[in-house]
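Contributing new records

If you add data, match the layout below exactly. Sequence lines come first and carry their own label; structure lines follow with theirs. Keep one chain per record. Anything else will be rejected by the validation script.
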Amino acid sequence: IIVATITPDMPFPATACLVQKELGAVKAAAFDLEAACSGFIYALEVGRAFIASGIYKNVLIIGAEKLSSIIDWEDRNTCVLFGDGAGAAVLQRRDGARGVLATRLGSDGNKADILAMPGGGCRQPATVDSVNERIHFLKMEGKEVYKAAVNAMTAAAKEVLEISGLSIEDIQCIIPHQANQRIISAIGSRLGAREDQVFVNLQKYGNTSAASVAVALDEALQTGKIKRGDKILIIAFGAGLTWGATILEW
């Protein structure tokens, strides 16, 4: 069980262990993974690698966030953007199924400070002063995040298309991280994608970080946007900085 989250129930134990208890999955290993909004793609690739190596037969991956707990409601630059949500998927080997065709993950710690929650860790533990200084809330430099997100997600998407030998016309559904419409539109334009290829549910939930692409994937499936045999491009970007792209054949 892998839980991708930046808002765990507590610093430890891992939220994945709490999920394991609730499910009664007594044979399962469990751990959390923190890659912010890229978390679900990171969890997908870790789970895929576990299965490909033969270590595990079934992997449950979850992207779950309660961002309302780390949002500064006095900061209009961030509080209107984020939401709470969760999505999950079970990974397993299937004969005759292609599944994950290509994945690319990336990171850039040099820009860690443009999207972060400064307080709460061992560097700046909670004190009366730190709470009064409001450093236990998410902080974001919007313009810098926009530029980095568009560049990184576009590049990652082009890489997985090249690796898999596909063009953007071969993709039936593009599921980008639901950060904001400007980022989604810019990536679609740079990839040469048609508007009807790009799935958007941002208007319903806002940016739900690690849950974002998981929730969108499920909604795309439930609404008939994805059908058996379709090729799906999933792209995400988050704090770290982290990013990732993957192509699935459904």
